[in-house]
Design goal:
The complex is a heterodimer of chains A (about 260) and B (about 425). With about 260 residues, chain A is mainly alpha-helical. Helices cover about 75% and strands about 0% of the residues of chain A. With about 425 residues, chain B is α/β, with parallel strands linked by helices. In chain B, about 60% of the residues lie in helices and about 15% in strands. In chain B, the strands form two sheets. A six-stranded parallel sheet of chain B has the order 7-6-5-8-9-10, sandwiched between helices. In chain B, helix 3 packs across helix 4, helix 6 packs antiparallel against helix 7 and helix 11 runs parallel beside helix 12. Classes of the chains: A mainly alpha (about 260), B alpha/beta (about 425).
């Protein structure tokens, strides 16, 4: 199967799902949101097929260039969001996640790179572990950032005794807190392992001194922000504006590190 | 077959009339059987709540309605004319529309209130249990329950609390989500505080602590909630164990202060505290709202939320009315076509018999014909029959969907007479 077919099918379904979910917000129609979930779930199936096709073609997880990584992060975030919707009927996350997923997969579609087997020097389990864990960690961080933002919106609305724009759609403060905290604690551990695996692989393969580029610096900043966010949750100071600023910096550094990815 | 509804509700009758006409649960079975036993009644169900008494029937003879009115008056020991002042009598499509609106909470005193759907369901079970529902009423009732569910899920008309205690429950859900396993501390023994705690407990709360200056009263209330009484002096330490605090004492000063709440939250670690101050003068220092992790609402805040929610429900009722209009049209159409089916089948059968007999006669007279010729003659005769039947069938379906003009013969009967059907 040509990889283009499931990719463009997934992209079309994500576009339809994103438009429908935004429609549900404008028209305040919960039914439209159900339709959006259905469309996104169909898109998710097509997306999974696309990832499977690439894995079969290249013989490794789809994590070696920007289109592949972007697609895998979108896939992971959507999987978690759909699971949360089916388990807790978390609606508000859809307004952020669906456009983000569409955007990330859009990047994969626009930046056309060839899907090729890894060069012999890159065929290493340590390298694959580095890619897989950092990508999963990034996805977890994005989920934590999203739910922190939802928490802050709803917390402010409750404190200021007004009905916020997403009042009916945001789950309880406790659920937002739990999702963020779990995503952060699991994601931080996974991301740290991923970075350590990357350092180990570089150490093994490089003969010269490592010179960090934009991608590496951004990944390190994201790791520090990750740790700071987790610390604010553990210390119970996550309601402050500082947490939101950290989350924003973490999001920006992830975007920079992702766009800094060239074909390895 | 006709549907009729005779009833009174909170808009047409004062409470003294409603209470006399109401059918208490213990009398419901007897009343259902009595109405079902009236000549010309095929099916009956009764909705009797504090806001309405409605007898819904499917009738062979529409004059029975007068008998039902008489029965209501005699049951209530009221003059018929006095009962008639407050009664409404609905027929056919209006019955369907009314039932859909009632079950969806659009005809309720507080628009969108959820209890009525349950009461309509109970009325269905009572009538179904006694077998006083005929197929039409059964279908109507089942569709009514489906429509009520659809209206609620599609419009969210019942989503927002419209009373102070429910507004507190709604806010607690926004903070904690599932209330199961949470603990509430009730400070004081005020009525509204007790009512709020009761609503919270009904939503799954586990433990209720009651603190009151008079310890005996605290013990009494705690026993009602299945909770435990605590001494008023131990309030600060109880804040650590509780998730929701409801204050409604008669004290003229603050009984909960910011430093106490801050100290409790520091020990709770990442567990928020929701405080509801229902007392006037206030019992919780307003500065508590500035403590991180504490959410404080007073009685005015909750009233404001309830008021705003009432307006939201009214806005949503427009969308609900549109759904109901669509559902009424579709139900009546379905009912009509089903009612017309036996006549349509008989009509087809009658004309088909005539066609077959006349065809045989004709073929005998003509003599031998080829297969193609016979097929052509058959097609011609069938075509004529279909053309003849087209308008009677259309009219039958249309007439069944519309109420019959007063005194006019139903089209179905006319057609049956013209074509000599049994």
């Amino acid at each position: 199967m040509s990889p283009g077919v499931p990719l463009y099918l997934a992209l079309a379904l994500y576009a339809a799902g994103t438009l429908t979910v935004l429609g549900s917000l404008v028209f305040r129609a919960p039914r439209l949101q159900h339709a959006a979930v259905f469309l996104m779930a169909l898109g998710f199936v097509a997306h999974t097929v696309w990832i499977g096709v690439i894995c079969t073609m290249t013989g490794h997880p789809p994590l070696t260039n920007l289109p592949e990584t972007s697609s895998f992060i979108a896939w992971t975030i959507l999987a978690v969001t759909l699971a949360l919707w089916f388990r807790y009927r978390v609606s508000a996350a859809a307004f952020f996640v669906y456009p983000l997923v569409f955007l990330l997969l859009g990047i994969s579609a626009v930046i056309q790179e060839r899907f090729e087997p890894l060069a012999p020097e890159l065929r290493s389990n340590v390298f694959i572990a580095h890619l897989l864990f950092t990508t999963l960690g990034v996805a977890a961080l994005l989920i934590a950032v999203g739910f922190t933002a939802l928490y802050q919106m709803q917390e402010r609305a409750i404190r200021e005794k007004r009905r916020g724009a997403l009042w009916d759609w945001i789950p309880s403060l406790r659920l937002c807190d739990q999702v963020s905290y779990r995503a952060l604690s699991i994601g931080f551990a996974v991301y740290t392992i991923g970075i350590l695996a990357g350092i180990l692989w570089s150490y093994r393969t490089s003969t010269t001194t490592l010179t960090p580029g934009v991608k590496e610096i951004a990944a390190f900043v994201a790791w520090v922000m990750f740790a700071a966010l987790l610390q604010s949750y553990i210390a119970g100071s996550y309601r402050t504006r500082r947490t939101l600023v950290i989350a924003a910096v973490a999001f920006a550094s992830i975007m920079v590190s992702m766009f800094g990815i060239q074909h390895v | 077959m006709a549907l009729a509804l005779v009833g009174v509700n909170h808009k047409t009758a004062p409470v003294d009339v409603r209470e006399r006409l109401s059918v208490p649960e213990r009398d419901l079975d007897a009343e259902l059987e009595a109405v079902r036993g009236m000549a010309g009644v095929d099916g009956v169900a009764i909705v009797s709540t504090c806001n309405r008494v409605e007898i819904v029937t499917s009738l062979r003879d529409e004059n029975v309605v007068e008998g039902i009115v008489g029965r209501l008056a005699s049951r209530a020991s009221m003059e018929r004319s006095r009962v008639e002042q407050h009664l409404y009598i609905l027929r056919h499509g209006d019955v369907v529309r009314h039932l859909f609106r009632v079950a969806s909470g659009l005809d309720s005193m507080i628009v969108g209130e959820p209890q009525i759907a349950g009461q309509v369901r109970q009325a269905y079970h009572a009538a179904a249990g006694l077998r006083t529902l005929d197929p039409i009423l059964r279908r109507l009732w089942e569709q009514t329950l489906r429509v009520a569910k659809k209206v609620r899920s599609e419009t969210g008309i019942g989503d927002h609390a419209v009373s102070v205690p429910y507004a507190a429950v709604e806010l607690a859900r926004k903070i904690f989500g599932d209330l199961a396993g949470l603990r509430v501390l009730l400070v004081g023994a005020g009525k509204i505080g007790e009512l709020t705690a009761r609503n919270l407990q009904g939503s799954g709360l586990e433990t209720v602590f009651v603190a009151n200056r008079a310890f005996e009263r605290a013990e009494e209330l705690a026993a009602q909630f299945g909770g435990s009484a605590v001494h008023f002096d131990s309030l600060p330490s109880r804040l650590v164990d509780s998730d929701i605090v409801i204050a409604s004492t008669a004290a003229p000063h603050y009984v909960i202060r910011p430093d106490e709440v801050a100290a409790a939250l520091a020990r709770r670690r990442r567990r928020d505290l929701f405080l509801v101050d229902l007392s006037v003068p206030r019992n919780i220092d307003p500065d508590v709202a500035k403590v991180e992790g504490a959410y404080l609402y007073n009685v005015d805040d909750l009233r404001e939320i309830a008021g705003a929610n009432r307006e939201i429900r009214l806005r949503k009722s427009d969308a609900a009315e549109k759904i109901i209009e669509r559902e009424v049209a579709s139900f009546l159409e379905r009912m009509a076509s089903e009612e017309a089916i036996p006549t349509i089948l008989e009509l087809r059968e009658r004309l088909e018999t005539i066609r077959a007999a006349e065809l045989e006669k004709c073929l005998r007279r003509i003599g031998p014909v080829t297969t193609e010729q016979r097929a052509a003659i058959e097609m011609l005769s069938s075509g004529i029959i279909n053309k003849v039947l087209h308008y009677p069938i259309v009219r039958l379906k249309e007439s069944a969907a519309r109420p019959k003009p007063e005194g006019a013969e139903p089209i179905r009967d006319t057609i049956r007479r013209i074509f000599g059907l049994r």
